[in-house]
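User: Can you help me understand a structure? I only have the sequence.
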Amino acid sequence: MTPNSEGTDKDQKLLKELKEFLLNLVKHHHLLGQHILIQQAKSQFAEVEEAQIENLIQELAKEQKISIVNPNAKPKERLICLIPQVVAGASK
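Assistant: Let's start by predicting it. Here is the structure, written out as tokens:
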């Protein structure tokens, strides 16, 4: 492996860990402000840029794991909530 690919692999692993962290935080709190979510992420993953954190939040929203309740609001006013996942075979 070249040093560049090693760095890329580490970066990808870090971003994957951060994405899981974001999702777990939303799962735990159910509803929280986007700016709080970003602050918490920055406190645990100081080496990651805020723009990368925002991109991961957008990815989670596109994957329908979380929802941005008021996406047209200013970033500090946005709320993030969990989208419950339907379990296959769950009783009605």
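Now, to help you interpret it: Residues 3-82 form a domain with the Arc Repressor Mutant, subunit A fold (CATH 1.10.10.10). Helices lie at 3-29, 34-44, 50-62. Let me know which part you'd like to focus on.
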